[in-house]
Design a protein that fits this description.
The chain is α/β, with parallel strands linked by helices. The protein folds into three domains: about 80 residues, no CATH class; about 240 residues, Rossmann fold (3-Layer(aba) Sandwich), CATH 3.40.50; about 90 residues. About 50% of the residues lie in helices and about 10% in strands. The chain is built from 17 helices and ten strands. The strands form three sheets. Strands 2-3-6-1-7 form a five-stranded parallel β-sheet. It has a three-stranded antiparallel β-sheet with strand order 8-10-9. Strands 4-5 form a two-stranded antiparallel ribbon. Helix 8 links the parallel strand 2 and strand 3. The longest helix is centred in the middle third of the chain and has 21 residues. The protein is elongated, with a radius of gyration of 29 Å. It starts with 8 loop residues before the first helix and ends in a 5-residue tail after the last helix.
Length: about 450
């Protein structure tokens, strides 16, 4: 049906009734998309046709032309949102309460089933999924950055799994700076960016916008629209996949997962790259858990492990709060993952320097006690270990924290001719020495 210049008798009668209601002081019922098809009909017109009809339509409805314009604009925006919404965005929260630890275990199982992950990543990724559902409870939202040395290391597979587990997720292999903040402002998606190495590295404006979304108070950019400054939000969960490292400013605001190519002997399930009943059920459970636990996550202040710098502590705070609410083994495993993925040894080359010095300290021995190793490391006054923190020498606990990111932990050792004690085995270092300091003596 086309909209004619004159309104129908019924529509004019309805407009008169609203006018009388306003005159008598009764609350008028404004036309909406559900109770007045005229607005929908007007919204369906092209720009020229609407311009020809708007004055007559506004008079017939008894409202100002500017008010009619707003109603038509709102109708069009709602219709556009409905047409562009992706099927997996429509999530019905689970009817039953959800056990947080069980949900995280199931999310962990899904990630493990489709991708070979480094140690700690299977903890960080499920926690980040629930963070995406509850991010408004806190004031920090860490980026999830997936890095690999080359292609075919599972980055896209991780993004696909995130795509079907997080709220209002959008996966893109390229995005411009203006599109980024406009899309976040309009949709508030979980934004998943693939192939970032091809367009983020040399785009300072885009990196600046991504950086701004880390802290809620600063998560906005201001741009001129029709010669008037307007604020656009950049507050949304974001995951980025890239070959080789991202810029330091992004990495500093991120939980970084270093992916490696799957070994020939490793097996994972084929990822069909489409929605499934399993993904839908996990989204439903995540939505319900977020509703039930959101208030408990507001301004949460979980205990943070040693070995994280201030920015890493900020990044892990919302995830550790989720782990604490879930309970069970997640409390401890989340803290171990934090140290493993974001500990101080990951900040630069200091961990590699430590590995080199430990190789020297071992000499020809197969095992060494922690206390003896610390004595040897701190004996050289020209090395950093003698005055590691505030002028004080490295301790056994600090040594353990520095080695944790390399998956090296202490255990009971039996050095020949010495009492047993906590310490390290040469065999535990062999892989790290080959990977990080080949050829060093």
């Amino acid at each position: 049906m086309r909209f004619d210049r004159k309104l129908s008798t019924a529509e004019i009668t309805a407009a008169v009734e609203r006018a009388f209601a306003r005159h008598e002081g009764r609350e008028p019922k404004l036309p909406t998309r559900t109770d007045n098809p005229v607005i929908g009909e007007l919204a369906s017109l092209d720009a020229l046709e609407y311009e020809l009809q708007r004055d007559t339509a506004a008079a017939g409805l008894g409202i100002r032309v500017s008010a009619l314009d707003k109603l038509v604009k709102s109708w069009r925006a709602t219709t556009e949102d409905e047409n562009t919404a992706l099927p997996h965005w429509n999530v019905e929260p689970s009817a039953e309460p959800v056990d947080g630890a069980a949900l995280l275990n199931n999310l962990r199982r899904v990630f493990r089933g489709y991708v070979v992950l480094p140690k700690g990543a299977d903890i960080a990724l499920p926690l980040w999924v629930l963070h995406a559902w509850t991010m408004d409870a806190g004031d920090i939202s860490p980026l999830m950055v997936l890095v690999s040395p080359t292609k075919r290391c599972g980055k896209t597979s991780v993004l696909i799994v995130l795509y079907f587990l997080t709220p209002r997720s959008e996966l893109s292999s390229n995005i411009t700076a203006p599109a980024l903040f406009r899309y976040i402002e309009d949709v508030r998606p979980t934004l998943l960016i693939d192939e970032a190495d091809s367009f983020v590295k040399d785009n300072e404006e885009l990196r600046g916008i991504l950086n701004s979304g880390h802290t809620k108070a600063a998560a906005n950019v201001i741009r001129n629209i029709d010669h008037k400054p307007r604020r656009f939000s950049t507050w949304a969960p974001k995951a980025i996949a890239t070959i080789r490292a991202v810029a330091d400013t992004l990495a500093d605001r991120a939980i970084v997962v270093q992916l490696q190519r799957k070994a020939p002997t490793a097996t994972v399930a084929p990822l069909r790259r489409r929605d499934s009943e399993e993904f839908a059920a996990l989204r439903s459970q995540a939505a319900r858990w977020a509703i039930d636990n959101f208030d408990r996550l507001v301004d949460a202040d979980p205990q943070l492990p040693n070995g994280l710098n201030d920015r890493a502590s900020d990044n892990w705070r919302p995830l550790l709060a989720i782990a604490d609410l879930a309970g069970g083994e997640w409390r401890q495993e989340a803290r171990q993952a934090a140290c493993l993925l974001s500990g101080e040894a990951q900040d630069g080359a200091i961990g590699v320097e430590l590995l080199k010095d430990i190789r020297v300290a071992f000499g020809d021995h197969e095992v060494i006690r922690s206390a003896d190793l610390v004595v040897k490391l701190t004996a050289d006054l020209e090395r950093p270990w003698a005055e590691w923190k505030h002028g004080r020498p490295l301790t056994q606990k600090q040594l353990a924290n520095l080695l944790a990111p390399f998956c090296i932990t202490s255990g009971t050792v039996h050095p020949p001719g010495l009492p047993d004690g906590k310490g390290y085995r040469r065999a535990d270092f062999e892989g790290a020495w080959r990977a990080y300091c080949p050829g060093s003596q």
